[in-house]
Amino acid sequence: MRPKTSIEIEGTSVEEAIKKALAQLRLTRDKVKIEILSEGVKGLFGMPGAKPAKIRASVIKDKEKA
User: Fold this and answer.
1) Neighbour tally for 52: CB within 10 Å
2) Per residue in 2-41, pLDDT tens?
3) Angle at CA 17, nearest 5°, toward 3 and 47?
4) Number of domains composing the chain
């Protein structure tokens, strides 16, 4: 099975979604390109769950670093 090169993850915040993606890919932040798809929206009076943040995490290939 080939390793995933890109995943989309949701979280209560962009930072949480990034942490989840890095854990799932088992990579550090410098090895991944992050695209914010949705910043997310907090619920009424700051309650979570109105709309989650969503990001796409893509593995940076060696050629892209140069």
Assistant:
1) 18
2) 667 899 999 989 999 999 999 999 999 999 999 999 998 8
3) 155
4) 1
Tokens of 42: 């907090």
Q: Tell me the β-bridge partners of 38.
A: 54
CB contact at 8 A, 33 and 57: yes
The domain of 14 spans: 6-61
H-helix or E-strand spanning residue 65: helix 62-65
66 belongs to a structural domain = no
Specify burial of residue 31 (Cβ count, 10 A radius: 0-12, 13-18, 19+): middle
Q: What are phi and psi of 22, to 5 degrees?
A: -60, -40
Candidates 10, 18, 6; CA nearest to 41 is 10
pTM score above 0.85: no
